[in-house]
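Schema walk-through. Below, the input block comes first and the output block second. Nothing else is stored per chain. Lengths vary across the set, and this one has 441 residues.
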Amino acid sequence: MKNLQIQMVILLALLLAYYVRFNTLYLDTNYIIALLGGLLTAAVVMPATGAFRHEFRWAFLRKIRRLLAGWALVVTILVTLAALFKVSAEFSRIWFGYWVLFTGASLILSQIIEHGWQIHRKNHLKAFRRVVLVGGGQHGLSVKNRITTDPDGALQLIAFFGTDWSGENSYPVAQLGSFIQNNDIEEVWVAAPGDEQNLLKVALRSLNELVVDVIVVPDLHQYRLLNQKMIEWDGLPVISLSGTPMSGTEQRLKSIFDRLGSLVLITILSPVFLILMILVRLSGSGPIFFRQKRAGTGGEAINILKFRSMSEHSGGFSQATAADNRVTPIGRILRKTSLDELPQLFNVLKGEMSLVGPRPHPIELNEQFMSRIPRYMLRHKVKPGITGWAQVNGYRGITDTDDKMALRIEYDLWYIQNWSLWLDLKILMQTPLAMIHQNAF
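--- output ---
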């Protein structure tokens, strides 16, 4: 389902809701404005859910979840705007409820129809393209598995060429040209490992005088960084090995989501803030809030806020442990439940942090691990978060070994590579359970 289809679903659902409520399709001006606002908001929000990604075309339930999460966010934004501009009384609540329900049901129904058509097309429209694979090693095996398990079923793998294959459909690369001429091959896929460039040269030399499509799959895993993609610069094809993972629109949408979310949470949790401030003050001398320099976007230092959990802080850096006698009784509870991190909502409101993202590490911790953990600094391509994918998967608290830190980094980079608004909402919903069941120490 593409963005234009979603716009049509929202439009038709609004018209149906209006007809059911008012028994006419002649829209008042206010409802036309609401329609335009809904379409514009959906045009921005829906792509950021990740539902349009190519890899989700067969992931029916995951796509549905993302679409419904996007529609829920659109509804939330519209309700917030209506409340801010004090125009909610000008709309029928029954009509709005119908619109929300009809759109949600239509998104599900349209996805069922699209999924059914894909299954029909796969089972009955056998438009195979006959392909052969030239390659070897782990890279060649990975490409072979991708072709043979392609959900579209549009490729029929006929033979393998190279030294690493075995079986009746395996041949030396020297026979590539004659095999193609005698077997009506339409595509040649070349997946040569990085250390076997001679295989690529021999294969391309055999293909020089043949009318066949050639697809080269570069072995980028040897340069594994983050957000690899092929781009074009002034007509020159360029492989980006490490780029900004979010588009400008996605970054702006995430920023709006963060600031609105932090403002709402600060308002709702204000009684909790007041109680914790009193408890911290009664726990001993010292300020209520503790400020510490940590690594923000690009590794630049930011001052994060926390409720003070220790009776004293030394000039140097040292991670607190479960037996640390500097931790106050109330501070121990705050740290175990991560309630000491709540003041970072103000960092989010200022734009220094995000609600969800890699946790900001102390500058000293960065200096300690950046040369020991591969791709460590790539986690700083996005704003740090109050909670993150690593934290809800069990990697909270102390990271005193290379193995623990390496696992946290893998989760952080997976989050950056796979970011969507749905993923942020999922992590936020999982965070309270993680606070209960995991020990931050």
